[in-house]
Amino acid sequence: MKTIMAIGAHIGDMELTAGGVLSSMALEGHKIITVALTSGEKGNPKEMSIEAYRKQKQQEAKAFTDMLNGLSIVLPYDDGTLQNEDTIKFEVSDLIRKYRPDILITHWKNSMHKDHETTHYIVKDAQFYAALPGFVRENNPHFAAGPYYAENWEDPTDFQPYVYVNVTDEGFRLWQKAISTHWFAINSPSFKYKDYYEALMTVRGKEARLNYAQAFDVSPISKKVIKSSF
Question: Does pTM surpass 0.90?
C-alpha cells in the first residue's frame, strides 16, 4: 500500500483539487495525508472572526481526512503572507521524512494566488531537502516521487493536463460527502467550488474514457519519453 501526501497552501486546496483521487485511493487501503501550510482563515464568512474561522477550518480538515481514515496536518502560518523561505521548507521536509510518503501532490507553479505559487516552491525544495543525506535531521532521508501538480481553477496559466488518475464511482461519492464538511466548498458567495470540481472530474473522466478522473501536470524534465527503439 502507498502513502500519499497532498500539500496545499490552505485547508481545502488539496481536498478539492486531488480529493477524488485521495478518496478513491483511501477506499483501496492507501494512507492519505493532507498538509495545509495555512488554515485559509481569511476567507471567513462576514459573521465570523478570522480566528473563529481558523478553528473551524482546522476541524473541517480533520473531518475530511477522518472520512478517509487518513491524517490532517495544519501548519501555523498566516493565510496570505506565506513566505518562500527555508524555515518552512525544512518543516515540510521533516514531515516527508517522518511519514515517508510514496507520492507528493501540490500546487502548479503559476497562480493568481501568491500562497499557491509559494507552496509550489516550498514543496519542490522540501522534497530535495528530505531526500539528501547531507541534511542531518531527526529522521532519516526519504525520497517521495512527484510532485504531481493538481488542477486548480486559480492556477491555470501554462497548466497542461498530463497525468489522468481514475476516480472510482465509490471514491467520487465519498469525496462528495467529505468535501461537504468544508463550509466554503458549499457556501462561498464568490465561487461554486463543489459544483466546479464535480464537473471537472466528469470532464476529465470522459477525456480519459472513465466516469471520473482528476488531471495533474508534472515538471518538464519528467515528460521525457525514453525508448530503446521505435
Answer: yes
